[in-house]
TrEMBL record:
Its main location: membrane. It is a multi-pass membrane protein. It comes from Plectosphaerella cucumerina. Keywords: Membrane, Transmembrane, Transmembrane helix, Transport. The chain crosses the membrane at residues 149-169, 181-200, 241-260, 404-423, 429-446, 477-494. GO terms for biological process: adenine transport; guanine transport. It is found in: Endomembrane system. Belongs to the nucleobase:cation symporter-2 (NCS2) (TC 2.A.40) family. Azg-like subfamily. InterPro entries: Azg-like, NCS2. One of its GO terms (cellular component) is plasma membrane. GO terms for molecular function: purine nucleobase transmembrane transporter activity. Pfam families: Xan_ur_permease (PF00860). This is Permease family-domain-containing protein. The keyword Transmembrane helix applies.
Amino acid sequence: MSWLTSINNGVAASPVGYWFRLDGSGHPRSRHGSKFLTEMRAGIITFFAMAYILAVNASIVSDSGGTCVCNSTNPEDPICAIDTDYLLCKNEVRRDLVTGTAAISSLATFFLGLLANMPVGISTGMGLNAYLAYDVVGFHGTGPVPYEVAMTAIFVEGLIFFGLTIFGLRQWLARAIPKSIKLATGAGIGLFLTLIGLTYSQGIGLVQGAVATPLVLAGCPESAMIDGVCPGSHKMRNPTLWLGIFAGGIFTVILTMFRFKGAIIAGILIVSIISWPRGTSVTVFPNTPVGDDDFDFFKRVVWFHPITKILAVQRWDIGEYGAQFGRALITFLYVDILDCTGTLYSMARFANLIDEHTQDFEGSATAYLVDSISISIGALFGTSPVTAFIESGAGISEGGKTGLTAMSAGVCFFISIFFAPIFASIPSWATGCVLILVGSMMMSAVVEINWRYMGDAVPAFLTITIMPFTYSIADGMIAGVCSYIIINTLVWAVETASGGRLKPSNKDLKDPWTWRIPGGLLPGWLTRLCKGKKDFWRPWPEDEADNQSVNDHELNSIGQHQTWAKPGEALPYVRTEIRSAGSKE
């Protein structure tokens, strides 16, 4: 017997092994093939698959300016785009966000593994971070809601999600949204992220706004800009653009195609390492006051950066922002419910943790509760909402089956807190192609949309297109839901008035929809408690039948569709998810 086998057997025979149901622990529902060292390795792989979020999330959310105040007196720079003091403050916010993102990822992932025994990582979701930065708060605070009020909305959203989970309303909300809108939301967010990745602010700078047309080809060095516009003689001549395309884009795609674990973080690191030396045409540390400040922070390498500007900045006097506050809150809640539900179910199925009779997985309610509490804690850290990450499939494909995988990844996120100088110094052209790649993965949802019936197709199309064209996830969702209600209500009215003689073409192909949940709206535990069952946490046989119907519907209609290999097979890295990436994403 090797020493590795001895370690695995020793842990399996301990209380730790019994709690996590390791193979050989003696637990009646042990997870076949789960070994302690395999779980540790799977957790490390999960971390490397998710680590890109530390740089990407900090880079995106810091574009809002955080709590920095723009007091520009320069009429040519009303949003402080070149104001040195504001940019130095923004740098501090970005560093705070690296620490905050790592901290909440560590806490959420660790406790999801400990309490729910799920091999899934949690971090700030891609999509909602962009919605927060560019729609709710706006670039450099130019949006309708201050950063502090936005953090309040996220904090409240986590509490509402907690209540919805406790009382079973999460299932109803996930079901009430038409299938076509759910699928279109993921694809629309993918296009939204792609547009961000193509621009200068958080991307490779391939496109920019213009006077005559909404978008034009760019690719100029920023020093060659004339009144903020790229002249034709300098288009596509920015060296950072080509570095991002080839090293950050094509290289990452090739690694992904060959199923290289950590392909995304590998591409980011290569571009960053090339961009770190000073004095080159692609340096991220120019000889400016801001560049000098960035380089001084980068040289620390290992350093704990405390959160100073965005910690617990919630603002509760929201009266003048009531409508916008509500709009942001509903959007955060809607996307989180779909994202978390779909990702956790797909990961549980990939890890063979789904009960084939009930179509549920053990600890599902606990997993949702951990996610909801983490959203509120993350808001105190100044981050966008967190969600389960589809990148967890990388660790599951390596044999991760228990919460030890998540706990291992959580420890890695904790260690990353002390490398904030590295993650805060990753340039936008290193992460831009990541956003484009994530967007392309999320677009695969369009093949599942029912394009054969216009009552489903048109609302879905509006959802997809309006999100990037208005730079707003909420506007796209509102357009999709409202158009769905109007179109299908009018169709129903015409059919009713004509006595069923007039029917639209292909009506028989319409996606089924109902607001009813088999077995009732209240969750089983609450129904059993009301009926006086002492061990109300244990289901009755009839509850299992109800759960099977409900969860079958969720799996079929949820707005996320992933293609994963069976355990033991190679992992096809294809994903579609509702998030900022992430949470795919």
